[in-house]
Amino acid sequence: MTDATTTPQTPFVLIDNRRMYHNLEVMSNLCNDLGLTLRANASVHQRSFLAQEQVDMGAVGVSCVTVAEALRFVEAGITNIQIPANVVGAEKTEALTDLLMMARVTVTVDHTVVVAGLADAAGRYDLSVRVLVEVASAEGRSGVSPAEAVTIAKRVEEEENLHFAGIYMAPIKSKSYKRLQETLKLLDGAGLGVDVVSGGGTGFALMAPTMPEVTEVVSGRYMLFDWESIVRGWCHPDECALMVKATVVNRPSSERAIMDAGWRILSPFGINNTYGHVLEYPHAVIYRLDSYRAYLDTSKCREQPVIGETIHILPIRSEAVLHLADEIYTVHQGQIVLMA
Q1: Which CATH class is domain 241-339?
Q2: Where are the domains of the chain?
Q3: pTM of whole model > 0.70?
Q4: Are residues 235 and 225 in contact, defined by beta-carbon separation less than 8 angstroms?
Q5: What is the CATH number of domain 17-223?
Q6: How far apart are CA 104 and CA 285, in angstroms?
């Protein structure tokens, strides 16, 4: 899992292994207790070695946004794949057929045009594709109404090489729950069996006991969490395993500090007027970012940072930081080492 390396220069992304394995165990136990299948949203980190940790700790497989991304995980040995997005166009459906020859793949659809494209591609090679119909959540993303879901499901069932496996919704929240229930009722009335009700998101796991129709939770941030997860009540601060290590490089005034970690590593996302949480100075506020610098208001801190001090920042969104980072580090036997 790790390779020894020289201590990296700040800023760099650091994972606390103890917290990470704790989070994996907690989510696995929660899903087991609720009778839920857990699927890891590997698009959050896009790294096969992290996905393998999730599978080793209870995830049935991974969810990937694109066929190309899914192929990387299959080549790494993970062979239970969900693609919760329309696969559109001859080039992509052809790539999907390659994937189907190597792995168990489930795709989602929300339009009959997409169904036709999948059927044509699968029919050329006599392959079978498991299909979930995406039902629109209250967030206004992709997906269809309950009635439209039935129409699309019937269209899927008409195709010899497609199998209607169930429905998908993300995120699943209390204000979307009635729509999910209505869809299941209509499908049942139409004589269409449902094997899987998939979706959710990291926060959904906390609501799952009140929504027993859901059979599979798709979650990504549960492995590492982030400051937004803490703000939304999805985890405790000591469960956040992902952080950015940075150095204080300037003190332009007694109430301000500048760190060498800008949006190129922290990402430009903010929440509640801050761009991250500094563990060593919890009352400080990161009020501004540029490409390579973070600007810190320390006016409410009893103790003040000093130039040259290294600090740890909990980023707002883990997936954004992981997409920006080329390398991730952890601590192994007291040494900072590269994860691989």
Answers
A1: mainly beta
A2: 17-223, 241-339
A3: yes
A4: yes
A5: 3.20.20.10
A6: 46
